[in-house]
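Input (structure):
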């Protein structure tokens, strides 16, 4: 009895497969037409997409080479006084620099200082022959140099800092390899020259930002420690305070003489010769598969609907 049921089930499965192939064969022209239509549309769409180029730099965190060996007593006094002895390790300093690179405040200031509103918000391509950006006329009128995009309140024709920041985040990436500690910073844009220039400027800007922060903090610490020295006559305390000043002076010296303060360039950014995206072949293949599957589903649904 069991063998008969199994044989009957196999026979039913065979009939079902035959029906599926029969339905697909009957609707072959619809499947072919739909697949070709999807593929052709994908080709035109892929060709309409502008090339995007990527420029990347590899950075190494700069080691804290001040050579400081802070005794426990001196470190404790510094902590009580609220003085930073440069004890923030290279890893912590690198982590802070990466978070600053991603921050809205830093990126917004970078955009303002370099006037990047047009290449970020209005560009829609790049002309290799003239090395000029192709601007969207519905967003920015190059002839009158006016923003003409139509937006609803509270937005204005000229993009705000926050809008520009959000768009820049899509072009910008910074990541650290947890194993090697190396940091990769990259920018994607229609213009490979702009992408490379922005990478270089970002590296310079973050080094300068970190240098200025620590320089300002060290100078404030020195001023505070000098004021404490003037208020005490205890020899041991004065000795420790002078030691603290010495360490802060080393920080000031390093900040003034080292340009690559937190990141050292290992592999500099270059002007990309090949596009990073779009992958036009992949777009066409996916459209071909989508068209085939969709048309086969339509054919099968119609076949079994009519059969009922």
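Output (sequence):
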């Amino acid at each position: 009895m069991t063998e008969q049921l199994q044989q009957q089930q196999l026979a039913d499965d065979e009939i079902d497969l035959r029906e599926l192939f029969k339905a697909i064969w009957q609707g072959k022209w619809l499947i072919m037409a739909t697949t070709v239509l999807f593929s052709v549309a994908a080709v035109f769409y892929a060709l309409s997409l502008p090339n995007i180029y990527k420029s990347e730099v590899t950075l190494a965190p700069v080691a804290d080479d001040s050579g400081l060996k802070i005794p426990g007593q001196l470190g404790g006094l510094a902590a009580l006084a609220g003085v930073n002895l440069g004890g923030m390790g290279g890893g912590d300093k690198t982590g802070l620099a990466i978070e600053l690179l991603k921050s809205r405040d830093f990126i917004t200031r970078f955009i303002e200082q370099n006037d990047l509103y047009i290449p970020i918000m209005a560009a829609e391509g790049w002309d290799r022959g003239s090395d000029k950006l192709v601007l969207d006329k519905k967003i920015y009128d190059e002839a009158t140099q006016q923003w003409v995009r139509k937006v609803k309140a509270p937005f204005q024709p000229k993009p705000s800092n926050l809008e520009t920041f959000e768009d820049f985040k899509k072009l910008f990436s910074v990541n650290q390899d947890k194993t090697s500690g190396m940091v990769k910073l990259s920018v994607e844009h229609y213009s490979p020259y702009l992408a490379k220039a922005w990478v270089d400027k970002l590296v310079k800007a973050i080094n300068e930002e970190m240098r200025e922060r620590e320089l300002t903090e060290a100078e404030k610490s020195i001023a505070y420690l000098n004021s404490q020295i003037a208020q005490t006559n205890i020899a041991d305390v004065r000795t420790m305070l002078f030691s603290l000043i010495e360490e802060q002076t080393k920080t000031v010296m390093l900040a003034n003489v080292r340009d690559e303060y937190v990141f050292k360039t290992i592999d500099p950014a270059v002007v990309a010769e090949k596009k990073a995206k779009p992958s036009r072949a992949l777009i066409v293949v996916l459209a071909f598969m989508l068209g085939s599957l969709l048309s086969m589903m339509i054919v099968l649904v119609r076949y079994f609907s009519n059969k009922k």
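Notes: Residues 33-49+278-308 form one domain. The chain is about 60% helix and 15% strand.
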